[in-house]
Design a protein that fits this description.
Elements (H helix, E strand, L loop, with lengths): L3 H27 L9 E7 L19 E8 L3 H31 L7 H17 L4 H63 L4 H18 L2 E4 L5 E5 L2 E5 L2 E2 L1 E6 L13 E6 L2 E4 L6 H37 L13 E2 L5 H4 L1 E2 L20 H8 L4 H40 L3 H34 L6
Antiparallel strand pairs: 1-2, 3-4, 4-5, 5-6, 7-8, 8-9, 10-11
Helix pairs in contact: 1-10, 2-4, 2-5, 2-6, 2-9, 3-4, 3-8, 4-5, 4-6, 5-6, 6-9
């Protein structure tokens, strides 16, 4: 219909629309610091005339104002997908870099208390003994230097094993957090579905959904798919973890015991739901992927290399030491002892009496120092140990470089998301002022129409 009263309705619709626009701008400003909040924009549509023609009359109006069709979250699902993927990759690289840096610090090379320094000290002790074969203190210094080598290797091995223990604890913590987040997402999915069905504003729930899916991606490298009802389904390396309002439970299938110890098996994961347990294929991402790779490859490889260095040292020194003779002219015995099944844990100095140090190369040689000189100049394990440490250093540098490069890519994706979803206070202030002025203009329209109606009703058709 058209006429004065319809003009009031048109002005009223403008008042309502611009009031919502001011409310939305105000909400954006209020949430400028809220984590995960996506900027909102009010959507409006012109209210046209009747869509169906009347039987006996024709509509001669020009529209009936404006209506609020909804409030849109300024997000792009493609950017959200990319953001989750890049954050998962970033978490994988960051957790590896942090762990490798701690291992590097625990190795302590180069340093006065490291393995390299203790090996050099042992050579110096053999050389000093070759200069003073009858000196009791020189023989004692050889044994003391040998014990320093054992201690340095043991300290380094324990540092790496301690880091492995911390990594296993982190695996359990991340699994627990992933299950908590998955349950939270399932509950959020349920609330979103109910709110959508009721016609309620579920924008806050959608913000929470995006936060939870991103955190799952950081923890497990999970992939999320948005459902038709607004919720999100999540899979971990192809295995469903969250489906609608149902959440499975991520578990450590092998490799780490509930107490945080190692069971000797590779680290694997499984997801338990109503249908049973499903093993997650190898290649899980996120923090758990990085921690799993450390436990499966990086840390064991370094311990294996260090164990090989210790075994070669013990075998080489023992072979040469047994070829010589001690102060009493007796054939030398093994200087080091170890259990082949656990070289790093059992390596020790086998003799305690300085007189048993075999410095002579001939029986009853007296002042002969041929064996001490051979032990001081024999090819040692310094080269192999240097290659082991250099390999670790190279891996640390490479890990840091990859993490830094990934951070650039992650920052670009986050920047694109922020450009779309972030809140610009200046822009919101302009929107609020525009809505305010439009509200005032609609009020003026209503006042004008009221004045017109007052004139028509109260000032025309008056009899004398």
């Amino acid at each position: 219909m058209s006429g004065g009263f319809s003009s009031l309705n048109t002005a009223l619709s403008a008042l309502r629309y611009n009031r919502v626009a001011m409310d939305v701008a105000g909400a954006n400003i209020a949430n400028v610091s809220s984590e995960g909040y996506a900027r909102r924009r009010v959507e409006g549509a012109a209210v046209a005339g009747p869509s169906q023609p009347a039987l006996w009359t024709r509509y001669d109006g020009t529209g009936d104002g404006v209506s609020v069709t909804g409030v849109t979250r300024m997000t792009d699902e493609l950017l959200n997908v990319r953001g989750r993927r890049e954050h998962g990759n970033q978490a994988y690289l960051d957790v590896r870099q942090a762990s490798l840096e701690r291992v590097e610090n625990g190795v302590g090379e180069p340093g006065d208390a490291g393995v390299a320094a203790s090996l050099a000290e042992l050579r110096t002790a053999w050389h000093a003994l070759s200069l003073s074969p009858t000196s009791e203190s020189a023989r004692a210094q050889v044994l003391s230097s040998a014990r320093n080598v054992v201690d340095a290797i043991g300290v380094q091995a324990r540092n790496v094993e301690s880091e492995a223990g911390d990594v296993r604890v982190n695996v359990l913590n991340d699994v627990s957090e992933a299950n908590t987040v998955a349950k939270g997402l399932a509950n959020t999915n349920r609330a979103i579905a109910a709110g959508t069905l009721n016609g309620s504003d579920v924008g806050v729930l959608l913000d929470k959904r995006d936060q939870l899916t991103t955190r799952l991606a950081e923890l497990t490298g999970a992939k999320a798919t948005v459902r038709s009802d607004g919720g999100a389904d999540v899979t971990v390396n192809g295995v469903p973890l969250v489906t609608g309002s149902q959440a499975g439970s991520l578990t450590v299938a092998s490799g780490v015991t509930p107490s945080g110890d190692s069971d000797g098996a590779p680290v694997t994961f499984a997801i338990v739901d109503a249908s049973g347990a499903t093993t997650v294929p190898p290649g899980i991402g996120g923090e758990l992927g990085g921690l799993g790779d450390l436990l499966a490859t990086t840390l064991p490889a370094y311990l294996t290399g260090l164990g090989a260095v210790a075994k070669d040292l013990a075998d080489g020194v023992n072979a040469q030491h047994q070829a010589g003779y001690d102060a009493a002219g007796t054939a030398g015995t093994a200087l080091f002892s170890y259990d082949p099944a656990d070289v790093l844990g059992t390596l020790s100095v086998a003799i305690t009496d300085p007189r048993l140090v075999a410095a002579s190369s001939v029986p009853g040689g007296g002042t002969d120092v041929g064996n001490a000189e051979a032990l001081a100049t024999r090819p040692g394990v310094e080269g192999a140990y240097q290659r082991l440490v250099n390999g670790l250093g190279t891996e640390v540098v490479e890990s840091g470089r990859r993490a830094a490069n990934q951070q650039v890519l992650t920052g670009q994706v986050d920047g694109a998301r922020e450009q779309l979803s972030g809140i610009d206070l200046d822009e919101e202030m302009v929107n609020m002022i525009s809505a305010q002025r439009a509200y005032e203009a609609a009020s003026r329209v209503m006042t004008t129409v009221d004045s017109l109606l007052d004139t028509l009703i109260n000032r025309t058709g008056l009899g004398r």
